[in-house]
Amino acid sequence: MRHLLGGASLIAVSTILSTAAVAQVDQIVVTATKRSENAQDIPIAVQALGEKSLDQLDVDVFSDYLQQLPGVTAGGSGPGQGTIYIRGVASSTPTLTVAGVSGLAPNVALYLDEQPVTQVGRNLDVYAVDLERVEVLSGPQGTLFGSSSQAGTIRLITNKPNLDGFEATLSGGVSFTEGGEMSNKVEAVVNIPATDRLAFRGVIYSDQRGGYIDNVPGTRDASESGRFRPAGTVRRNGVVVDSSQNGFQAGADLSGVNFIEANNLDLVEENFNDTDYLGFRVGALYEVNDDWRVYANHSRQRIESDGVFFYDPELPDPDQLSIQRFSDDELDDRYGSTSWTVEGRLGALEAIYAGAYLDRKTQQTVDYSDYLFVGQYLPYYICDGSVSYPGASAPSGNCQSPELFVASLTNTSVFTQELRFNTPKDKRVYATVGAYYSDQKIEERNDFTYPGSIFAESFTPGVFGFAPNYPLPGALSTDPGPFPDGVIFRNDITRTDEQIALFGEATLEVVPNYISLTGGMRWYDIRVDLEGSANSSFGNFGQTEDQQQFGANLSTLFDGTNSAVINGETVALPDKAKADGFIFKGNLTFTPTDDLLFYFTYSEGFRPPLLNRPVGAGGIVPGVVDTDELTNYEIGWKMSLFENSLQINGNAFIMDIDRLQTTIFDPNIVNLFFSDNAANAQVKGIEGDVIWAPYQVEGLTIAGAFSVLDTEIKEIITATTAIAPAGSELAHAPGFQGNIRARYEWPVGDDMIAHVMPQVTYSGSSWSDIVLINRAKQDAYMLVNVSAGIEKDNWSIDLFADNLTDKRADLNNFFGYDRERITINRPRTYGMRVTVNFD
Mean of the pLDDT values across residues 240-245? Predict the structure, then answer.
C-alpha cells in the first residue's frame, strides 16, 4: 500500500515513456469532450493519469489519485467521507449531521466510466484497480457534464474486456507504517475472450490498511459544556467568544452540581483506525456487428473502518497522533453498481446510450461527545435538578457522563440515463448533442444518543411537548416508538434530487486545421425535495410532511400554505427547491502547427438549490438556498516540442462565483447547522505541467506540475456575521502546490530492467472553512517518496518508502465543535509489491 500525497500532478496530461529506449512522451486518448481524442489535441485543461502511471504510482483509493493532481484538494475525515475541490472553489467540508439529506451538492462531478456517481457529502470511494486512466477536467464542465461540474469533473475509466486474447494479472503487497500497523493487499484481474465477438473481464481485490491513530485515556464531564463558557474566551482557532455567544450560565456557582465523568478506558487502543476495502467488478463486451457493441458492468465494494483519521493537537506529544474518543467509531459502507452502454452508428451519426443504477448503504456510528463543547442545551438533557434550567445562578443536581454518539443509516439510490449523438469530426462543422436524466434518492436516519438523558427512557406519544405525529411520510422508520434506549433526537428524512437536461456543443472549423470556434449550451430542470421528520423522545419539534423544521415550537408545512418571517418579511414556504435555465460555453482554438495549441474559453457552471430545515430561525435562515453560479475565463496552451520529447501545458484563468453556497453554524441564529448563499468570490490562477524525456539520457523522464491560486471573498451576501470578511481567502485553496519526480530506467543483464523514482510534493498553507468559528489554518507541508524495482518478462518487484521524512500533512482541519481535529496523512511507510502477468 502506498500513499502519495501532495495535491499536485506528477503526470499531468500523459504518461511517461513506454520503454526506456524511446525518448518520447506517450499520448493518452481521453473522452473529456465525450469523443475519443488525444489529450494534447483538445482545448480543455485536462489532466490524465494513464494505466502505466497509475501502476507506477500504486494509486488505489480516493486520497491517492486526487492528491496527484495540481489544483485538486480533498476535504473530509476518512474513507468514504471525502469531498473533492478543484481550483480552490470551496467553502466548507460537511460533517455527518449535515452530510446527507441536508448537505450541499458537490461542485466537482465524479464519474465511473459513463456513470455519474457524485453524491452529497459522501463521494463514492471507488477502489482504483484495473483502471485505464483517471481524467480530471478543471473548470466548469456544465454543458456536457451537468450541475455538479461547477468547478470540474473527475472521471475514472475502467479497462474494458478485450477480444484479442486471454490475459491475467496477480498483484500483492505488504507495507509497514512507523508507529502503526502492518498493511497488506491483493488484486487479481482476468480477461477471457469467449468468442471472437464476446469477452469477459473480472477484477477482485482486498486491501487491509493498518491504523496509525491512538485512542488514549481521558475523562470528560458536563462542566465543559458551552453553557458555562465565559465571554471573552479565546477558542483554539484564535476566534474570541463574543458576548452573544458566551454560555448563558457563565459564572454560575457549580459547587452544588455532581458532574459524573465519562471515562474511555474500555476503548483505549493503539492504531485503532484500521480500514478494509473488499470488492469485485465484472464486465462483458459483445460486438453485435462491425457497427454496434454493448458493454455491461457490475461492481460491488465494501469498506469497513474503525476509529477516526484525525488527531487532537492539544494532547501531550502531538507526534503520537492521538485522540480521546468516548464511544465506538465504526463505518460500514457498501455499494453495488450496474451500468450498461450501447454504442453504434446510425448512418454518419455515432450514437451512445448509457444507463446506470447505483445502490449504496452506509451504516456509521460516530462519537458525538465533542458536541459538549458547544452544546449550551446539553445539560438540559443529561442533568437533573436545577441544572436542567438555564436561569439558575447556583444550580444543583446530578449531570450524567457525556458519552454521546450518533448512529447513522443512509440508503442512497441513483438511476441515470443519457443518450447522445456525435456527428463526424472530419466535417467542417461537427457537434455533440444529447439528453440526460437522473433520479437520486437519499434516505437517512440519524439517532442522536445521549445514554444519560432524562428524557430518553421511553417515547410515549402525547406525554411531553406537542402532539406527536411520528413517523411521517418519507421516514425510514415505521414504528412510532419508543425510540431505542438513549435516543433523544432522531432525524429521519428522505431527500430526492431529480433532474433532466438537454445539452450540445458544436464546432466550426473557421480555418480548417488552424482556427476553430466552439459553442455549447445546456438546458436543465432540477427539483430537490425533503420528506420525513426530526423528532425528540420528549415530543416532536416541528414535524412536516414535505420538509422538517427542527426548532422549539416551530411547526411549518412546506406546501406553500404556511409562511415564515425572513429578514423582516413574511414569505410563503415552498414544498420543493427548484431551478431551471441555461448555461453556456464558448471556445476559440488556434493550432498553428501540429505540435502547438492555444485556446480561450468562456464557460459557466452551477450547483443545484437545496432546502433548509431551520427555516426562518433568527429571521435569517432562508427556506430555499439558491443555485450558486460560476463564470470562467481561461486561456491555455499545449506544446509538444523536440519530436515530442518535451511537453509543456498550462493555463491561466479567472473565475467569478456568485452566491457561493456554504454550510454555517452560528449560535447567534440557531443551534443547528444551516445552509445559505454566503458570498460572492473570485479565484485567479495559473496551472502548468512539464514532462521531459531527454534524448541525451536514455531511460530518464522528469515530470513536474504546479498550481498557483489567488482566492478572495469579494462580498458577503448572507445576513449572518459568521462568514470570514471580504478580502479573506476561500477554503482548501493553497496559494501554491507543486511536485516533481524523476524516473530512471536501465537494463540489467540481457532481460531485466531496473528503475528508481524519487518524488517531492509540496502544498502551501490554506484555510479549512470560510465560517469564522470553524475556520483554522492548515499548515504547509512537503513530502518525499521514493521507489525502486526490477522487472523481467511477466513479473516485477517494487520497493517503496512513502513520506520518507515522516512529515505531518494537514489534509483537513475540522473545528466544528470548538476543538481542533486535524485529518493527517499516513506516517512514514515502507513496503514491497509483487506483480505477475499471465498471457
Answer: 70
DSSP for residue 383: B
Report the candidate in 667, 215, 672, 222 with the shortest Cα–Cα distance to residue 451.
222
How far, in Å, are 178, 212, 364 from residue 270 at the CA level?
13, 8, 21
Mind listing the pLDDT tens digit for each residue in 84-122?
Answer: 889 989 887 666 555 577 788 888 999 999 999 888 767
Q: How far apart, in whole angstroms, are the C-alpha atoms of residue 474 and residue 497?
A: 14
| DSSP for 297-356, written as a single string | EEEEEEEEEES-SEE-TTSS-GGG-EE--SS--EEEEEEEEEEEEEEEEETTEEEEEEEE
Q: Are 51 and 132 in contact (CB under 8 A)?
A: yes
Q: How many domains does the chain have?
A: 1
Coil, helix or strand at residue 123: coil
Report which of 686, 695, 740, 796 is spatially closest to residue 25, judged by C-alpha positions. 695
Sign of CA dihedral 242, 244, 249, 253: positive
Q: Which helix (H) or strand (E) holds 134?
A: strand 131-138
Please tell me the distance from the alpha carbon of residue 609 to that of residue 356, in angstroms, as a whole number: 24
How far apart are the C-alpha atoms of 103 and 84, rounded to whole Å? 14
Q: What is the pLDDT of residue 735?
A: 95
Amino acid identity, position 265: L
pLDDT, tens digit, for every residue of 752-788? 999 999 999 999 999 999 988 888 899 999 999 999 9
d(CA 729, CA 712): 5
Instruction: Judge whether 712 lies within some domain.
Output: yes
pLDDT digit string, tens, across residues 291-343: 999 999 999 999 999 999 999 999 988 778 999 999 999 999 999 999 999 99
Range of the domain at 655: 29-242+280-838
Flag whether 254 is in a domain: no
The secondary structure of 753-814 as a DSSP string is EEEEEEEEEEE--EES-SBGGG--EE--EEEEEEEEEEEETTEEEEEEEESTT----EEEEE
Looking at the domain assignment, is residue 615 inside a domain?
A: yes
The radius of gyration of the chain's CA atoms, rounded to the nearest angstrom, is: 27
Within a domain: 489: yes
Give yes or no for a contact between 563 and 596, defined as CB atoms under 8 angstroms apart.
no
Query: Using CA atoms, how far apart are residues 246 and 230, in angstroms rounded to an integer?
Result: 5
For 158-198, what is each residue's pLDDT tens digit?
999 999 999 999 999 999 999 999 999 999 999 999 999 99
CATH number of domain containing 641: 2.40.170.20
Backbone angles phi and psi of 388, in degrees to 5: -70, -20
- Give the N- to C-terminal CA distance of the chain in Å, as an integer: 26
Contact residues for 205 (Cβ-Cβ < 8 A; gap 6+): 127, 129, 185, 186, 187, 188, 277, 278, 279, 280
| Residue linked to cell 433548509 | 612
> Cα–Cα distance between 112 and 118 in angstroms, integer?
9
